[in-house]
Structures are given as structure tokens and as C-alpha cells.
């Protein structure tokens, strides 16, 4: 492939990596990771609410990695409540998983920025071997993609397996019990998915530029090496 086309491909990869770093950083600070509907189970059972009466006992909840908001309704109107995970909810949630999600998001941002820098270095500079060349580009893209996948897996398990929404809804509730009526992942969660796919796309761009995958050797090079060994 001509050098000019390789520069264009590397520039595209660098811009995509930088955009993913910015998108991930923006997603971390929002509370749009999960949106859900919570039902005041205790209040609904007390009045034996059915049909349209249940609307008076249905509230909303949305949260991110650091803070969120819930609106509880127990028949007396909505009461909003702002909360933060640190340090309020650490005793109520699986803290190790939650901290791991934040840690992998940080690593994702760092490696996305590093990858963007090396993409641009290979486009406009004189690439070195190993970490500065195509092997390094594969490495940064692979690590960033892996971190994005780990973030989605860990956060999904925290929400679905450990029932994070119910634990947040019942935080500091003495007499009322809330149950998750429905929940869905919101925009910030899907930004992480898009970023992971973009980093996977970057590995295909590197391959499209004409570079072999790391640790792969062609049969011709092996044949030439063997012939050279026989000469000595």
C-alpha cells in the first residue's frame, strides 16, 4: 500500500482512538448508565393496588458510576433523592466490582490516548520497531478493546446478578421495600460498547494498511532463514 494511504489510515485510527478517550471520559461523569422503574412493594400491598392505582407507587431511578437520582412514590407523590456511591453506598453495593469498573474505565482512557498518539506518530513520524511500530498499535488497540469489554461485563453483572438497582432503591429505607419493575442500560453504557468496537476496528485498519498480525511469520521468510542456516 502506498505511504500516503497508510498515513490516511493511521490518521483515521488516531482520531477514532482520541474520540473514544473523550467519549469514555464523558461517560464516566454522567449518571446515564442505567435507567429503571421501581415499585413501592410495601405500599402497593397495603392498599392492594391494581391497574392504574399502581402508578401512584411507581418511581424512577437513574445512576452512573459515581452518583444518581431516585424518585420514590408510595402513594403520597414523588420524592426525589440524590445519592452518591462514595462514600454513601459502599456498604450496600458490591464495592470491589464497582471500583474495578471505574479502574478499567480509567485504563481504557489511558490506552486510547496512548494509541491515538502512536497512530499519529506512525502517520507523520518515522516509526520504530516493536512498540512504536505496528506491533505497538495492535497492543494498544487490543488492551483498550479488552478493557471496554471488561467494563461492560463487570457492570452488567453488578446490575443484573447483584441487583444493584434494588440495593440503591432500598438504601436507608426502613419501613418500605422497593422492587425493580424494569431497568435498561442507558447512553453512557452503550458509549463503552461503541468504543470497544472502534478499537477492534482499529486493529482491522492496521491490518488493512498492510501489516501482519503480531508474531505471525510467512512461509517464505522461514524458508529463506532455513536456507541461510544451512549455508553456515
Automatic annotation (TrEMBL):
Q: Looking at the record's lineage, which domain of life comes first? A: Eukaryota
Q: Spell out where the chain crosses the membrane.
A: 97-123, 135-155, 189-209
Q: Is Transmembrane helix found in the keyword set?
A: yes
Which protein family is named in the record?
A: Belongs to the clarin family.
PROSITE patterns xrefs: PROKAR_LIPOPROTEIN (PS51257)
Q: Which Pfam families match?
A: Clarin-2 (PF25807)
GO BP of this protein: equilibrioception; sensory perception of sound
Q: What is its main location?
A: membrane
Where in the cell?
Answer: Membrane
Full protein name: CLRN1 protein
Please provide the record's keywords in A-Z order. Answer: Membrane, Transmembrane, Transmembrane helix
Membrane-related topology note: Multi-pass membrane protein
Q: What's the source species for this entry?
A: Pandion haliaetus (Osprey)
Q: What is the lineage of its organism?
A: Eukaryota, Metazoa, Chordata, Craniata, Vertebrata
Q: Does the keyword Membrane apply?
A: yes
- Its encoding gene is what? Clrn1
Please give the InterPro entries that the UniProt record associates with this protein: Clarin
* Any GO CC annotation of this UniProt entry: membrane
